Amino acid sequence: MNSGFSTRDGGGVIAEFEAAEVSILRSLVTQVLGLVAPGETGDDPLERALGIGIGAGAAPSDPVLARLFPSAYQDEKEAAEFRRYTEATLRDGKRADAQTMLDSARPGRSELSPEQAQAWLRSLNDVRLALGTKLEVTEEIHDEIATMSEDDPRYPAYVTYDWLTYLQDTLVRALW
Fold this sequence. Notes:
It contains 7 helices and 3 strands. It is mainly alpha-helical. It has a 3-stranded antiparallel β-sheet. The chain is globular and about 50 Å long. The chain starts with a strand and ends with a helix.
């Protein structure tokens, strides 16, 4: 496998992917983008400018969204208030990162600016969190994959999760 990231002389990161890999990445990022609707703010211009959400800010009932937007506090009232002040901006940031990834993901060798590479890192993390939540990934994932039959219907999803982990690792190493 030649896919992944490496450090670029002069800063930034080199990304290298095959066309099929870009297709998978685009599909996964698009799915996460579909989950992360734009943040809703109130009608007040100041609230909109500050990204203050409307309503009480209840935690998402969807397990994937709950993983992407975890509660900051155990106390539900405090968590809701914190969510009201942060979630719209967090959603917008996740959407912007996903869009950066979609705009810059291409087959072959390409260069990413430091800012694009950071957006990729955040977006890859969101994709891994979403897929890992759906797959109910545990710390034993690598042992499970090693012993899983390729005929197992879960195998492609688990291997994809493992590949995303590899990509995220190569990107972290390229950035630092």
